[in-house]
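Researcher: Here's the sequence for the chain we discussed earlier.
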Amino acid sequence: MTNDLDTLLIALYLKVDDELEASRWMGRPPQLTDAEPLTLAVAQALLGFHSATRWLRYANAHLASMFPYLPQQSGYNKRLTAALPLVKKVIRMLVMDTDFWFDNHWIADSTPVPCGMSRPAGQRSEMAGWAGYGYCASHSRFFWGLRLYLVCTPTGMPVLWSLANPKMDEREVLQAMLDVEADLVTDRPGLLLISDKGFASKEFENDLAMRGIELLRPSFKREKRRKGEGLLKSVRQLIESVNGTLKGQLDPEQHGGRTHAGVAVRVAQRVLAMAVAIWRDHKTKAPIMRSLIAFDH
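Model: Thanks. This is the structure I predict for it:
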């Protein structure tokens, strides 16, 4: 591993351990604290290990000095799945620990998260009912699985995220996300939400306006040119670069989850890894935010 990744893991462990100080174990401490499986999960995502077996074999060979005790595959998977609420909490904790938390420009987009590659898999999978068939226009392909909805700052720092059936209306999903986190919007007057044409509708824009949010999106061919549309070309590149980092370097499509909780935590694991990298780059004043090159080998 590189020294950069060592430093990132140590900083993350200390940050999480300090934040969880109030909920420390009473009596005999566990062999693996809450901060350790979370730090291991981030390292796994950054180093690109899709298999838990291969990852634990690598960790035993290269991370024994940092993690004196490592569980077996079943124990690691159980701890990781149970850590989903903690992963969500840490993602929010990291963005609040940066200047990006006060950014009143948000970018919204969605990307496919396939959960099966055959019809029998879709029929027998425990994901049936939550997952479904959808279409990815950017790759001109159908898939069976979920959609990851990500609302982030222009630097790519995740603010809101959610997994939903791909047949659901994108606007309804985003509205539900904003309903759950209503306090975030009320604390940000003049919030600008930047999206693509998939979020276009008068009803949706009226709903956002009632929340105090202005929507910036491309206009349709027969539609009058919208205010601020000239800025969208460069902003669209930001959206694509965030998706490129998430899909190209952290690969959420290769999550390996088989259950609702398993898929959710493994996608969250990758969102957390991106948030950790941006948080570290921000703290060290790195010239390029959201750069994972120093951590992926």
